[in-house]
Design brief:
- This protein has helices at about 5-30, 35-45, 50-70, 90-105, 110-115, 120-140, 140-150, 165-170, 180-195, 205-225, 255-265, 275-295, 305-325, 330-340, 345-370, and strands at about 85, 155, 230, 240.
- The protein is globular, with a radius of gyration of 20 Å.
- It starts with a helix and ends with a helix.
- It is about 70% helix and about 0% strand.
- With about 375 residues, the protein is an all-alpha fold.
- The chain has one domain (about 5-370).
């Protein structure tokens, strides 16, 4: 592939990624897809509908990603989630911190992107704080703390930490053999169980879950298939185009928001370039705005009080720090990472849910005692 062909392929990857973000934003706004909202529904009213919608999305993503692995189109080892170094303390700690933060900030990073598109000034402030805290945790002062504390604690595995690789090590059959069939079956089973649980509810949740999961798979395909170059003309090595991690990527928004700020601040620096994360985040905001304007639900929203501002500032900071430490948000780890059946992703998601649920319960208790 020549330099000119790489440039054309990069533009295609960015265009497709923007389209996926656009569709994600419109669909998520339509069906009220929000992990924190789903946890809140369960904690406050006992309604599990949106939890099951999330499970449908996860099952669809797991089945779709592992189908591509079985077909030989992609491999989990090319992502940041399935390496042999299992940073369990980073996943657990970062996930817990992110879970607390998303309750204080009235939603995770993707939800705040959706709200920003629908007119929330509160969400815009949260995203600025997420960007600052996230970038500091990627490359700044909190990055030094992260690297020298939680990231220093890990287990070295003999294979990748994704389930097909772990099973393949013992069965002798890799992700495209028996282990791959098991992974595909897990995704189908999760999808079927969640679908069955929602039979008595609005079909919107089923369509929303399948649609969100399919968009995660589409993002993997764009990055891992369309954006894969077997031999980049500049390095003569395999490469994934338009990614900040230089690995295969799907939807994830904490680092994306941070790199978006970096791109805007240093736009004149020719070394800065658009990435899948940046354009998909922008697409999500635009998609949400289109839906909000079209459905006449666009509303300007500000902070109700100083206490409200304080909580959102703290929540944004915790999400930026926690999301980078755990390698993703409730979409990045909760759907993209989980689709690889990575042990780290599973641990991060459990920690996020635990942090959010505990914070919701404490918040409810404090409101009752006032």
């Amino acid at each position: 592939m020549t330099e000119a062909e790489v440039a054309v392929a990069t533009r295609l990857v960015l265009a497709l990624s923007f389209a996926i973000g656009l569709a994600f934003g419109a669909l998520a706004q339509r069906v009220r897809f929000c992990t924190m909202g789903a946890i809140a529904d369960l904690a406050v009213t006992g309604d599990a509908s949106r939890i099951w919608m999330w499970a449908i999305a996860a099952g669809t993503a797991i089945a779709g990603f592992n189908a591509m692995v079985w077909l030989g189109w992609v491999q989990a080892a090319d992502s940041v989630y399935a390496g042999s170094r299992f940073t369990w303390l980073s996943a657990a700690t970062g996930g817990l911190v992110f879970g607390v933060g998303m309750v204080l900030a009235s939603g995770c990073t993707s939800k705040n992107l959706l709200r920003a598109g629908a007119g929330s000034l509160k969400a815009m402030v949260v995203l600025l704080v997420v960007a600052l805290a996230g970038f500091a945790t990627l490359k700044g002062i909190t990055a030094v703390v992260r690297v020298n504390t939680v990231d220093a604690v890990s287990w070295s595995l003999a294979s990748g930490q994704d389930l097909p690789s772990l099973l393949g090590r013992f069965s002798g059959l890799g992700p495209r053999g028996f282990a791959g069939v098991i992974a595909l079956a897990i995704g189908i089973a999760v999808l079927a169980a969640a679908w069955g649980a929602l039979r008595r509810h609005d079909a919107e949740f089923v369509v929303g879950g399948v649609g969100i999961g399919a968009l995660v798979v589409a993002a993997w395909w764009v990055s891992g298939v369309v954006g894969h170059v077997a031999e980049h003309p500049s390095t003569l090595e395999p490469a994934f185009l338009a990614t900040s991690s230089r690995r295969m990527e799907s939807l994830s928004f904490v680092a994306a928001v941070s790199y978006s700020m970096d791109y805007l601040l240093f736009f004149s620096d020719t070394s800065k370039a658009l990435t899948i994360g940046i354009v998909s985040a922008v697409g999500l905001v635009v998609g949400s705005a289109f839906y909000a304007i079209g459905s006449r639900t666009f509303r300007w929203e500000g902070f109700a009080s100083v206490a409200d501002l304080r909580n959102h500032l703290l929540g944004g900071a915790l999400m930026g720090i926690g999301g980078v430490t755990s390698l993703g948000c409730t979409v990045g780890q909760g759907l993209s990472g989980v689709s690889t059946l990575s042990a780290g992703s599973g641990l991060a998601v459990v920690s996020m849910v635990a942090g959010a649920y505990a914070t919701l319960k404490v918040t409810m208790w404090l409101s009752e005692t006032d």
